[in-house]
Specification:
CATH topology: Beta-galactosidase, Chain A, domain 5
Distance between the termini: 50 Å
CATH architecture: Distorted Sandwich
Number of strands: 16
Order of helices and strands: HEEEEEEEEEEEEEEEE
Number of domains: 1
Number of helices: 1
Shape: globular
CATH class: Mainly Beta
Largest sheet: 7 strands, mixed
Strand order of the largest sheet: 8-9-10-11-16-14-13
Helix content: under 10%
Length: 242
């Protein structure tokens, strides 16, 4: 009896200790300089790593290698002032760039189908942001996109990335889906989607709105135009995408 009770108490104590240690995890560690980590949402052994990309530097321009591309192996740099969008696949702590598949970005105002640049963010759909509104914990990431006044929240399951966007009331908004976006972007190798469709998963539910993006990713030598979901300004302010 005593042995059984002692074993139970020991197992319970270990379980409580393991849960409590999660609060000490800081996903922002390694996101500056050459740490090559991302701050977004994922689960252990999951196939989705949903995270913000602050910039992507192509491997080469006109055949000339760009040394800065190495800093964006994970798509995120803490020192950057803008977010390009939120893509679904990332590598952490690697010495090589890749992935950054299926970037999604909520916007308001004028429609852009290109990301713009860090020096001129107003020329594209990227947005300025502040670390004061940024929060990253295991399995959850959130930030406010200052240019659009949109609150973005991300989480993930083993196979799905889940986005929640809260738009300003009574203002038209869009969700840009950039199928050309990628980390590394080596010349001659482009990834795109085929048989792509976006479904309103629960069309009878007025708030929030749910959308599911489905398709098959293939590598080809051509580009696919960007697409977007339009949201007209109503009292409905929240959109969920998975």
């Amino acid at each position: 009896m005593n042995k059984t009770l002692n074993l139970f108490l020991l197992t319970t104590a270990l379980a409580v200790k393991a849960v409590a240690q999660v609060e000490y995890v800081n996903p922002m560690i390694g996101t500056d300089g050459m740490g090559h980590t991302f701050p977004g949402a994922c689960v252990p052994f999951g196939i989705v790593q949903l995270s913000p990309d602050t910039d992507t530097i192509p491997h080469n321009v006109d055949g000339k290698y760009q040394p800065q591309t190495y800093a964006y192996c994970a798509g995120y740099q803490y020192k950057d002032k803008t977010i390009v969008g939120f893509s679904h696949t990332h590598m952490s702590g690697t010495g090589h760039s890749d992935l950054g598949d299926i970037l999604i970005m909520p916007t308001t105002g004028k429609l852009f189908l290109n990301p713009g640049t860090a020096d001129n963010p107003d020329a594209g759909y990227r947005s300025r942001f502040s670390h004061q509104t940024e929060k990253s914990v295991p399995g959850h990431y959130q930030v406010t996109l200052d240019d659009y006044k949109v609150k973005a929240e991300l989480t993930a399951t083993p196979r799905v990335g889940v986005h929640k966007y809260t738009f300003p009331q009574n203002e038209d908004g869009r969700i840009v889906v950039d199928l050309n976006h990628g980390i590394y972007n080596y010349n001659g190798h482009k990834d795109t989607m085929t048989n792509t469709n976006i479904d309103n998963t629960y069309p009878d539910q007025p708030q929030p709105e749910y959308y599911t993006l489905q398709g098959i990713k293939v590598s080809v030598d051509r580009l696919t135009p960007g697409i977007y979901i339009r949201r007209q300004g109503t009292k409905t302010t929240k959109i969920l995408v998975k």
